[in-house]
């Protein structure tokens, strides 16, 4: 399974489940069926936003605001990924220059908290520098989920968590996009 833009995938088997992450590729500055009901969608959105903002607060960064338009676009792409059965970033033109974090795992084995926390756990490899020189491993893709979550200039996020075809899929869209060449995350 390949990710676009030279990004990295992570495989973590747990209790027979496979979780995959695909980090946002080179960012550019730019201004199935769901198991969720409307009520649980609101709860899930609140959890995702809380987890993002908790990490941003830890770094004294401005909080993100939830964007329902980004959420809608993320949901459409999550359904497309479910149909494909693999992670792949949407074309930058299709996502209007927004940043994107992706995650997929075997349905029912993972929580949305776990998926978002896997983005944030990449901070263990993060080193403060100008993108792409931001990882202790020498591979920027090892921290690209994390840096998108904490990118100072990012103001809004919209995500979708769906279950279809035996997988849970999380797609998060960020505006403006992070991971901009030559810039610091914060």
From TrEMBL:
Organism of derivation: Qipengyuania profundimaris
Stretches assigned to the SCP domain: 43-182
SMART domains cross-referenced by the UniProt entry: SCP
Top-rank lineage group of the source organism: Bacteria
Family annotation (Pfam families): CAP
Listed name of the protein: CAP domain-containing protein
InterPro entries in the record: Allrgn_V5/Tpx1_CS, CAP_dom, CAP_sf, CRISP-related, V5_allergen-like
């Amino acid at each position: 399974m390949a990710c676009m833009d030279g990004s990295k995938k992570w495989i973590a088997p747990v209790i027979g489940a496979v979780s995959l992450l695909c980090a946002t590729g080179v960012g550019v500055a730019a201004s199935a069926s769901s198991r969720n009901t409307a009520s649980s969608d609101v709860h899930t959105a609140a959890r995702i936003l809380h987890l993002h903002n908790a990490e941003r607060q830890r770094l004294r960064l401005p909080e993100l605001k939830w964007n329902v338009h980004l959420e809608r676009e993320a949901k459409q792409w999550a359904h497309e990924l479910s149909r494909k059965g693999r992670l792949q970033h949407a074309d930058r033109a299709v996502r209007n220059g927004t940043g994107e974090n992706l995650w997929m795992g075997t349905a029912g084995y993972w929580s949305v908290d776990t998926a978002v926390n896997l983005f944030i756990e990449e901070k263990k490899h993060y080193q403060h520098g100008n993108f792409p020189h931001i990882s202790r491993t020498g591979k920027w893709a090892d921290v690209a989920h994390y840096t998108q979550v904490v990118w100072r200039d990012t103001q809004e996020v919209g995500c979708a968590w769906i279950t279809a075809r035996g997988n849970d899929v999380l797609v998060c869209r960020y505006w403006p996009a992070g991971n901009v060449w030559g810039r610091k995350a914060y």
